[in-house]
Amino acid sequence: MRFWRRASHAVALSGGCAFATLLSLQAEPARAFDLSSLDVFGLFTKKDEPPAPSPSALPYRLEFDLGEADDAKTLTRSLQDASLLYRLRQDAPPDGESLSRRMATDLNPMIDALWSQGYFNADVTLVVDGVPLKVGTEPNATLVRTLEAHRNRDAVPITVVARPGKVFGLRRIDIVERDEAGAPAIADPVKVSRLKAGDPATAAALRAAQAALVDHMRAKSRPLAKVVELRPVVDHAAGIMDVTYVIAPGPLAGFGDITVGQTDEIPPEVVRSFIYLEPGDPYSPKALADTRRSIATLPAVGSVRIREGDKLDGAGNLPIFVEVTERPKRLLGFSARYSTIDGPAVKTYWEHRNLFGGAERLRLEASVFFAPRIDGTKLQRFGDFKESDLGGRFSFSFMKPALGGSRNDWLLDGVATRERVGLNRYGGYTARYGNVTTAIRHRFSDTFSIQGGIEVERGQTSDVLGQVDYTLVGIPLSVKYDSTDNLLDPTRGYRATASFTPYPTFLGSTVGIYQTKAAVSAYYALDEDARYILAGRIGFGSVSGASLDEIPATRRFYAGGGGSVRGYAYRSLSPLGPFGRIIGGRSLLEASVEARIKITDTIGIVPFFDAGTAFESSLPDSKQKLQMAAGLGFRYYTGIGPIRVDVAAPLNPRKGDKPVALYVSIGQAF
């Protein structure tokens, strides 16, 4: 369908006005495939160079003459997109008759392209050696002879002479409801359309207004809303357009029955447990988008399709149909990260996404990382390397979703770790421990959940305060809220987590402690396209119930690192003990703020500021100075998330802190 159709270039009416009936906003694309487009960088082909002259074909060279048009470059691109001559310029026709027909076919689509940009008095002529071909005329013998005169000599010079004229503006904008009783569905429809008198009468603007009207009505629980008629009237003499939209809001409706259809080998009841819509809830496109995202959090799910019924049911509600496809069941992967302070780390993982046919996920991970020296010695050459300079971690994670079709998930996690944390100047700690945690998570909605379980950990830590051999048996309780729009690259919403875990001695713990953690982050887009985002995070932690030297080093708090206070070594910010060595704290306070700025669709910069430290007391106080850092990040946005490169510098460095730190990873810092 075309946005406008005409019997000729202009239809003259009394009073010197011409009117066009618009049916579609884009010219139909030519059905041709330019193989030269495969050469992305133009290294092997020259797409603008025509084929060589030959006795059996008529190659041609196409040029565009836009005169004094202000936006000649943009209009030239529009004409090229609409032009069959341009698309087939590497496919020379056999004779002058064929080339002349190709030229004639091009005229109306190029006029359409200019009309779609608001140039309703545009004129396009194709010229070859002074012989013109205009809109509404047929190729004649003179043109054919002129074309044939170039056979086996050179490329036929074809010039597209386009004179756009002035851009037409909008004058009158009317939006009327068809056969609707009662209060109007849209209180201020012109405001919703975002059309204003004087704006250019472009196809894109009219299309966007139509979409905005429909989206607004659907967001108001009118799922069958549509624009039934679009009546544009173009006054060629005055250079303006009047436009009328006729809308049919349709009735207010809720969600009807939710039917789970195709699910491959995933049980339908598991999929249904991640759908928080209920029959009778008010219809909302956002609720459908949230449902799609909620189902997609199942590791076994590859894609989600939600289809709306085409009519309301007997109760006046709209039926919903859900189908999912399954991802490949097995996954084997590898990842690496690097920091100039913390050194390199590599990780390999294996995952099964539907282990027993109930969408169970089992993930095994093994990682090896550099363990920084904390005893004053340095690794200066390969011969200095020792086995203890490597740390390692092995972990497993199992999830059984939707127990009995409910919104309860069973989680089982375990880890075994050997690590050394700190830096030579301020020391640190070494640790070996194993941990197993099992829990039940209850999902109230796609954004809010609570979790409770049992945790057992045995290990040994050693630092300047001494060695602690310990056993911890606790009851971890947590709550989570996440309304953000993306896991790795959020642009809007909030995240909040809070946990409290008592490790009482009557359960078997060798030291009775009580640990509390909380973190809140917020994301605010300054513009509709989320190219400018403010992001902030604050974190808090506290452990009480025992003196610092009785608490295992791994359960004390430290700040610093790529996910904490950038610019400082990982877990190196804490109170100092004997010999000026870090000993960890019983409380923690961290804060970060970033401005995430997209320069292009794939490149962005992120200026940031971090602050934080650990405190000796069980609550943050003024005795410990906050360490601060600032820096600049670079982002390369991919389909799976941004690749992050951050350069950070401490603002109030301690003696021995490096002046600059570099971090490379996937995903935003928080």
Task: Give a verbal description of the structure.
- The protein has 670 residues and is mainly beta.
- The protein has 3 domains: 32-163, Ubiquitin-like (UB roll); 254-326, Ubiquitin-like (UB roll), CATH 3.10.20.310; 330-666, Beta Barrel (Porin), CATH 2.40.160.
- It has helices at residues 72-82, 84-87, 96-116, 141-148, 189-193, 203-219, 268-273, 285-296, and strands at residues 3-5, 21-23, 60-65, 123-128, 131-134, 156-163, 169-177, 226-235, 240-248, 254-260, 301-308, 317-326, 330-339, 343-352, 361-370, 390-400, 408-423, 427-443, 448-463, 466-474, 477-482, 493-503, 513-525, 532-544, 587-598, 603-615, 627-638, 641-650, 661-666.
- Helix 1 (72-82) packs across helix 3 and helix 3 (96-116) packs across helix 4.
- The radius of gyration is 34 Å and the shape is elongated.
- The two termini are 47 Å apart.
